[in-house]
Amino acid sequence: MAVRPDRTKQTGQAGQTAPDAQTGRTMPEQRTRTDARTDARTDARTDARAEGTEEPLTEIVRCEERIHVGTERHEAGRVRVRKWIETEMVERTVPCSHDEIKIDREAIGDVQPGTRVTITEDDREIVLYEERPVVTKEAVPVERVRIRTERVADEQTVRSELRKERVEVTREEEKAAGGGRKKT
Fold first, then answer.
1. Cβ(31)–Cβ(83) below 8 Å
2. Which end of the chain is less crowded, N or C, counting CB atoms within 10 A of the terminal residue's CB?
3. SS3 letters for the chain?
4. CA dist., res. 74 & res. 43, Å (int)
5. pLDDT of residue 78
6. Residues whose CB falls within 8 Å of the CB of residue 156, separated by 6 or more in sequence, listed in order
């Protein structure tokens, strides 16, 4: 028996029942070996083939799964950007100066006669100066940090099981020795 698509799609012919309610396919009626009509139908089919007409066939659709691989975008993680203040101790050496008192004494030698000198009290004030280190601070921009995302392409291997339907046609033949089965 050959399995081919049904080209005639006729119903109500000999050797054929109405379409199956679930599948919509036309199935041949079941026959027993002792059926007397079997020989008559076989002769009619042989005559139809000889005349060039095509008889109704049983159609079986074989299916298999196909794999379609794509991608979906999912959240893979988060990055937090935080800025904080850190304090560090620094030392700098700064040159500083200050005023000091230096006393020089010298003797007065010859005084001219007739010079009058009065003995009095006298206060004078001298201002002494010194330099002291002064620290001032200013905020200066030193670096610009830009954060952005970059898409990097790589490859991943996916594995999946695919199911396939298989069709086997078995022809039963009666042998002279008591019958047997033959697969084609």
1. no
2. C
3. CCCCCCCCCCCCCCCEEEECCCCCCEEECCCCCCCCHHHHHHHHHHHHHHHCCCCCCCCCCCCECCCCCCCCCCCCCCCCCCCCCCCCCCCCCCCCCECCCCCCCCCCCCCCCCCCCCCCCCCCCCCCCECCCCCCCCCCCCCCCCCCCCCCCCCCCCCCCCCECCCCCEEEECCCCCCEEEEC
4. 68
5. 93
6. none
Q: Write out residues in the chain with pLDDT < 50, as ranges.
A: 1-38, 183-184
Q: Tens digit of pLDDT for each residue in 54-74?
A: 778 888 999 999 999 999 999
Residue in 83, 98, 88 with CA at minimum distance from that of residue 143 = 83
The residue ranges of every structural domain in the chain are 16-67+158-179
Q: Tokens 């019958």, residue?
A: 179
Q: Residue 26, class by beta-carbon neighbours within 10 Å (0-12 exposed, 13-18 middle, 19+ buried)?
A: buried
